[in-house]
Specification:
The chain is an alpha/beta fold and about 300 residues long. It is built from 13 helices and nine strands. Helix 8 runs parallel beside helix 9.
Length: about 300
């Protein structure tokens, strides 16, 4: 049995995985099957996936220039992703949008610094607070490589881009949130818009609560995804005037299915239907989700 990376770096297999939901459920958009840790891999930091643990990254050398990283294998890692994008684009009709993506610098940096996912990101916060210039250097490096990576996806056929900041909720202090979430995200957006001004950009900074408004306004994203904890009425009043919202069905409703799932979907559509809105989950689909529930939700949405 192959590893997760064997699947990600196989254009033939990854394109099939990307297209499967479109063929099975008739979704309006396809999002590239890949992972946010392609960038650390491209920078030369080895990433493995261990059962029950998740991603494990080899330690950085914090004393070395550029943290001991080398981009000698960058093309090897990213070119296969670009080929997947090309294959998926060729397999879609003109009505289905192709979404490329990358991890936001803060989230990618937390994995690179701590070597794995941790809920509170205490190790990364400690390092950033004690070594702000050094941490800024790492973030700038991630920004540079992420811009190159996303522009490569656009060239290969991606029509929309999304940035995932899955661990942004660990930034509780306003100054740190601006410094490590908003600022590097804005750098990426500004550089992408110089090269591809017509490509819509979506951001998903999970769990940031009251910071959502600052995040949307200060980054000038075209759309933001909101997690399932965000109050719908507040989102409609405070966020939707700033642009398009994406979300935010709790994946637990998708697991349960039935009338409760449909009722919650109706509530989301009723509350956010007055403005620009893309119906989606408020976080990723969970493994125990019955496939028939996904099909039922898709049929309901398409029937409207």
């Amino acid at each position: 049995m192959g590893s997760f990376w064997d699947l990600v770096y196989s254009p033939e297999k990854a394109s099939l995985v990307t297209l499967q939901p479109i063929e099975r459920f008739g979704m309006d958009g396809a999002i590239l099957f890949s992972d946010i840790l392609v960038v650390p891999e491209a920078l030369g930091q080895k990433v493995t996936f261990k059962p029950g643990i998740g991603p494990v990254l080899e330690p950085l050398d914090f004393t070395a220039e550029h943290f001991g990283l080398s981009n000698i294998r960058e093309a090897e890692k990213t070119d296969s992703i670009f080929e997947t994008v090309r294959r998926v684009k060729a397999g879609l009709n003109d009505k289905i949008v192709l979404i490329g993506f990358a991890g936001s610098p803060w989230t990618v940096a937390t994995y690179m610094v701590e070597g794995k996912g941790t809920p509170e990101k205490a190790g990364t916060l400690k390092f950033a607070r004690e070594n702000p210039a050094r941490f800024q250097e790492l973030c700038d490096l991630i920004v540079e490589k992420t811009v190159q990576y996303l522009l490569g996806q656009i060239k290969a056929g991606a029509e929309v881009l999304q940035l995932f900041d899955s661990w942004a909720g660990a930034l509780k202090k306003e100054e740190e949130f601006y410094t490590w979430c908003i600022n590097p995200t804005k750098k990426i957006i500004d550089q992408i818009r110089k090269e591809a001004p017509d490509v819509p950009l979506i951001g998903f900074a999970k769990g940031i609560g009251s910071f959502y408004k600052d995040y949307f306004r200060e980054t000038s994203l075209d759309a933001i995804s909101i997690d399932f904890d965000v109050d719908l009425e507040w989102a409609a009043k405070e966020l939707q005037p700033l642009g398009c919202l994406q979300g935010n069905l709790d994946p637990a409703f998708l697991v349960e299915g039935g009338d409760k799932m449909i009722a919650q979907a109706e509530k989301i559509l009723e509350t956010l239907g007055g403005g620009a809105h893309v119906f989606n989950l408020g976080h990723g689909i969970v493994p125990e989700t019955p496939v028939e529930n996904v099909a039922a939700l898709s049929r309901f949405l398409k029937s409207l």
